[in-house]
Design brief:
By secondary structure, this protein is an alpha/beta fold. It contains 16 helices and 9 strands. About 40% of the residues are buried. It binds adenosine-5'-triphosphate (ATP). Adenosine-5'-triphosphate (ATP) binds next to helix 9.
Amino acid sequence: MTRLAWGRVFGVLSQLAAIALLLVSAWLIVRAAEQPPVLYLMVAIVSVRFFGLSRAGLRYVERLLTHDAALARVTEARVAAYRDLDRVAPAGVTGRRRGDLVSRVVSDIDAVQDRMLRLRSPWVVALVSIAATTVLVAVIDPASGLVVGGAAGAAMALVRVIVPWAVRRSGDDSSGWRGDLAADVSHGVIAAPDLVAYGATELLRESAHRSIDRLASAQRSTARLAGIGEAVVLVATGIAVAVVAGMSAGLAPVLVGVVVLAPIALIEPLTAVADAEGLRPSIEDAERRLAELADAREAVADPVVARSAPTAFALDVDALAVGWTDIVASGIDLVLAEGEVVAVAGPSGSGKSTLALTLSRLVEPRAGAVRLGGVEVRELAAADVRSTIGYLAQDEIVFDTTIRENLRIAAPSASDADLLEALGRAGLADFVESLPDGLDTAVGERGSRLSGGERQRLCLARLVLGGHRVLVLDEPTEHLDEEAAEALLDDVLALSPERSIIVVTHSPRVLDRVGRTLELGCPGRPVGRRTRGQAAGV
Ligand SMILES: Nc1ncnc2c1ncn2[C@@H]1O[C@H](COP(=O)(O)OP(=O)(O)OP(=O)(O)O)[C@@H](O)[C@H]1O
């Protein structure tokens, strides 16, 4: 039996101990009023103590086991959600806001826990408690048993239907509003410097306030509606008490208390079910949002049977079309022999970055073919292509950790000598060695303690460390002054001919230095291929 099942067994036992405590107490009080010799009461007295103490102990064990099981399940669910994000990014997460994704991975996954702990467990406990209490009362008086069981069953059915319906009607979409709020906050943190510069912080504040208000109002109405479930439970048990009391005339006085208090003993498990039903809509919404993420389109699909990765790394791009929802550039041809360098140019929006992502196997080609070492990339595992073709994004992420850990993302087992060598290739080794903490220097959030050029070089070193044979660099000299750009370009070009290099750029200086250009057309028009300098092969 699983830990969760054991936890529920202890939960049921704890609830039965609570019910037994009330019913034995009722018997004891009435029997004691008859003043029998105290020995007649001893078993009941000991039972009251036993049930009183065991209830707390059983509840503790139940919490321990069910929470342990739920936390293990949540860990699995969180890892699965990360995997889904990894699988679908970047194309599959387009259109979703970062904060909303964070909210899905963090708070929606708690819904998995809620379903196990706060929805299913109360139902299991209530069903067994009702069955046991009904049987006990029926043994004393079958008609009363029928009333107790009927009232409790009716209360559960009503609560199951009414409470989720009422919560849904109130328009509660806590998960959605929580996602919006998280998205506003994360967006605000990222955009803070620009918003302050434009004096536009008020806009963001208003948007966050709207999300907070909607979330608070959804939670308030859920809390208000929780009362409906409890009202149903109290009315049903109240009626059962009145009916059973009316029917108890023929019973022995000591049993009257037991039978009459039986419906009251069921209030606790029934109320727990009412509370659980109040959570059902938000749990279902959160599960739906997670399922959406799991079903999101894979950015790049692996073939059913992948061919083994080629050792050659020449690239042959043939009539390639790239795009997201629509095609943004088409008719792209390029032959890049091993060790060659080419620049990709074109007006803004012409699809240069999209092409870079497509070549790096992060976005699926829309038409045409890309061959790596003579093998069509769609016949290769995406991970194999990515280990050969490395991509440096325009706004590559630098993690809020040390230089060493930032580099080790590309090669977890790299030694310090390997790291320094890669830094050397990226022109950053002297700088790092001059730092008091060297490789252990913390770079701050998104590399805020580094200059723009140092950040780019750190990312370049990471790429070099990855051992890729083809490097796709998206605007590597963007945001750098002329001198820094020129120096970085020297280091980039020095990586060839060991590696092939594709540089996306707007910079005329880079275009002149590289000499060979693949030019994309204007957005909406087919690509106009034009070459400059040594155009051979493009
Ligand atoms: N993640 C995305 N999801 C959907 N569409 C996108 C995405 N990224 C870019 N696009 C669209 O693809 C088109 C081409 O964008 P891309 O970034 O490739 O152009 P670019 O030539 O690199 O532009 P720039 O020189 O300004 O960086 C644009 O119209 C853009 O709206």
